[in-house]
Amino acid sequence: MSDEEGHPDRHEIELGAVLSAIADPLRRHVVATLARLPDGSERTCASFGFPVSKASLTHHFKVLRHAGLIRQVDRGNSRAATLRRDDLDLRFPGLLSIVMAEEPDE
Amino acid sequence: MSDEEGHPDRHEIELGAVLSAIADPLRRHVVATLARLPDGSERTCASFGFPVSKASLTHHFKVLRHAGLIRQVDRGNSRAATLRRDDLDLRFPGLLSIVMAEEPDE
C-alpha cells in the first residue's frame, strides 16, 4: 500500500507508471542525475535548476514519487529526493543503466 | 534518416520515443508478444485481437514503428509487424527483458 506521501511499496511499483514517468525528458534527467550520485544521496527539487514554475516542478517530482522512482522527505522548507535504486534494480534490472546511458557523464 | 514508412535508422532511435511508446499497455503488450516469438516472426495488427477500432490499431502500430520498436511491411491486404530486436538490444540492453517480465508467458 502506498504511504500517505504516495510512495508505493516495492511490489506495487508498476512498469507502466515507471515508463510514463521517465518518458518525460525532465523527469528522466532527474532519474539519470540521481542514479549517478552515490547511493542514498539527496537532492532538493530546486537544486536541479529547471526553468519551470514551482507548481510544475512539484508536479514532476510527484509523478516520480507516485511511480516509485524516488522517495521524498521533508527537510523544513524544502523536500529532498533520493532514488529508489534497490527497488528499481530488483523490479526492472537494467532500466537505470539505460536511462544513464542516454546522457553522457557531466 | 527515417525511410518513407517512418522507420528510423538504428542510431536515430530515441529513448524518449521508445519509453512513450511502451508506456501504453496495448503497445507494451504488442512488444512483449513479439519479443516472445522466434526472431523475425511476423504478426499482423489484426492478429492481436484488440477490442479497438481499426483507426486506433493503425495509430498504435504507427507509434511503435516511428519509435523504432517494430518494422512493418505490406502483405497485400494487411501489414505484418516484426520486432526490431537487434536494434533494441544494442541501443537499450535489457529493455525487452523488462517488458517481457511484466507478463507471464502464455
Please describe the topology of this protein.
2 copies of one chain form a homodimer.
Chain A: H1 15-23, H2 25-36, E1 43-44, H3 54-67, E2 70-75, E3 78-83, H4 85-91, H5 95-102
Antiparallel strand pairs in A: 1-3, 2-3
What is the overall silhouette of chain A? globular
Q: Hey, roughly how much beta strand do the residues of chain A contain?
A: 5-15%
Most extensive chain-chain interface:
A-B, 18 and 18 residues
CATH superfamily of chain A: Winged helix-like DNA-binding domain superfamily/Winged helix DNA-binding domain
Question: Could you walk me through the main structural features you see in this protein, from its secondary elements to its overall organization?
Answer:
2 copies of one chain form a homodimer. With 106 residues, chain A is an alpha+beta fold. Chain A has a single domain, classed as Arc Repressor Mutant, subunit A (Orthogonal Bundle), CATH 1.10.10. Chain A is 47% helix and 13% strand. The first copy, chain A, contains 5 helices and 3 strands. A 3-stranded antiparallel β-sheet of chain A has the order 1-3-2. In chain A, strand 2 and strand 3 form a beta hairpin. The mean pLDDT of chain A is 93. At the A-B interface, helix 1 and helix 5 of A face helix 1 and helix 5 of B.
